Amino acid sequence: MRLYIDSANLEQIERINEYYPISGVTTNPSILVKEKKPYIQVLQDIRKILGEDKELFIQVIADNASEIVKEAEYFQTRISGKIIIKIPVTEEGIKAIKALTAKKIPTLATTIYTPFQALIAAKAGAKYVAPYVNRIDDLLGDGIRVVSEIVTLFTTHKISTEVLAASFKNVQQVYEACLTGAHTITVAPEIIEKLIDFPATTRDVRVFQSQWEDTFGKAGNPLLK
């Protein structure tokens, strides 16, 4: 399982990338708009933080296949390193995924709400599919079940496309997506920070430090010798 940051905020990305085992960053138009800066500059700055080897996901705005392909090719000329083009699973999007796969440009099929959307996108050549866990829940569906069924379909039919689960509102959803077999997940920075947050851990560390200092004092720190 690989972990991605779902954000375009440079400060958050820099911090999370420093402390956590991150494989890359996913962005979308809504996330980029929030930064109120030229989007190409934001994407280039994210690349500087990540380095060249981690994946950066960029979503197209165009809604017809030929324009989607042109937009994907444009991003490749402006953003260095490993980039993945995010494409919604419309008919035009599926056509574009086929075209970009032929050009060896990797894609992620996004706005996935059903297992069949994921299956068709995978057969078209998408490297990743992104089921929207919490948004499915909001529509009175079961986002985790959808992730599970997509994983089952891909396993049954020996499809190499990876499931990149997205749209989480809490740690429990992330945990369940991992349990059900999602190959990768993308999570907002504030939720990533909660993945290791547990009150007993902080309490235990303080007890260990207190007991040590009671016996050896602060000078007992081996780094001070």
Tell me what you see in this structure.
The mean pLDDT is 95. Helix 1 (10-19) runs parallel beside helix 3 and helix 4 (65-78) crosses helix 5. This protein has one domain (2-195): TIM Barrel (Alpha-Beta Barrel), CATH 3.20.20. The radius of gyration is 20 Å and the shape is globular. The chain has helices spanning 10-19, 29-34, 39-50, 65-78, 91-102, 115-124, 133-138, 143-156, 171-179, 189-192, 199-216, and strands at residues 2-6, 24-26, 55-59, 83-88, 107-112, 128-131, 162-165, 184-187. The chain is built from eleven helices and eight strands. Helices cover 51% and strands 16% of the residues. The relative contact order is 0.12. Strands 1-2-3-4-5-6-7-8 form an eight-stranded parallel barrel, surrounded by seven helices. It starts with a strand and ends in a 9-residue tail after the last helix. It is an alpha/beta fold and 225 residues long. Helix 1 (10-19) links the parallel strand 1 (2-6) and strand 2 (24-26). It is found in: Cytoplasm. Its main location: cytoplasm. This is Transaldolase.
